[in-house]
Specification:
The structure is a single chain. By secondary structure, the protein is an alpha/beta fold. The protein is built from 6 helices and 9 strands. The chain has helices at 3-11, 63-74, 76-81, 94-104, 119-123, 162-173; strands spanning 33-37, 40-43, 52-56, 85-90, 110-112, 127-128, 133-134, 136-141, 147-153.
């Protein structure tokens, strides 16, 4: 782990990442347990030994979020080729997630970071405290629970999937090279495995 990542890790116990940053590659992914449905919870540790794609998003039922989650849902088979599990995270309640997943026919877990509100999002640097919802942020976590790639997208832009697949390709290659952390100023190419970026929240 490089020195900057070590510094970030040591600071997690005392404060959250800065307002314009997400946790970078090389950082251990903060553990969590969140409800998806009233009778179903998931923990990050449930997926130890396989890659996890963690997609934070502002809200169920909003246009860009719908496009993004639908895209990842349509690519479940492609993610499965890497053995990767996709998890969506927002501050919506579990009943809202249940209705949304049924209406949109989403077949991967949508996790409720509802109470304490945004707690997990904050740990990852993916909480918008001004607006009270999760930022649009992506993380690829390896089989050992280490973040290998992260990206913070503008709220009104669907980040697509190419950055995720590049990071998964690197994990599959086994070269150990980490993808560079994304920023709001650096939008990855939209989906061919994607949809055109939508300029709505």
């Amino acid at each position: 782990m490089d020195k900057s990542a070590e510094t970030t890790t040591s600071q997690q116990t005392s404060r959250y990442p800065g307002a314009d940053t997400v946790l970078p590659a090389g950082t251990p992914a903060p553990p969590f347990t969140l409800k998806s449905l009233p009778d179903r919870s998931y923990s990050l540790s449930d997926f130890k030994g396989r890659p996890v794609v963690l997609a934070f998003y502002p809200a169920d039922w909003s246009p860009v979020c719908g496009d993004e989650m639908t895209l990842y849902n349509e690519m479940r088979d492609e993610f499965a080729e890497y053995g990767a599990q996709v998890l969506g995270v927002s501050v919506d309640g579990q009943w809202c997630h249940k209705a949304y997943a049924e209406a949109m026919r989403i077949h991967f877990p949508l996790l409720s970071d509802f109470e304490p509100k945004g707690e997990v999002s904050r740990r990852y640097g993916a909480y918008d405290s001004d607006n009270g919802f999760s930022k649009r942020a992506l993380f690829v976590i390896d089989a050992n629970g280490i973040i290998q790639w992260s990206y913070l997208s503008p709220l009104d832009v669907n980040p697509g999937a190419q950055g995720i697949f590049r990071a998964l390709d690197e994990l599959t290659a086994g070269g150990g090279e980490r993808a560079e952390v994304g920023t709001k100023r650096e939008v990855p190419p939209g989906p061919s495995r994607e949809q055109p970026a939508d300029q709505r929240l």
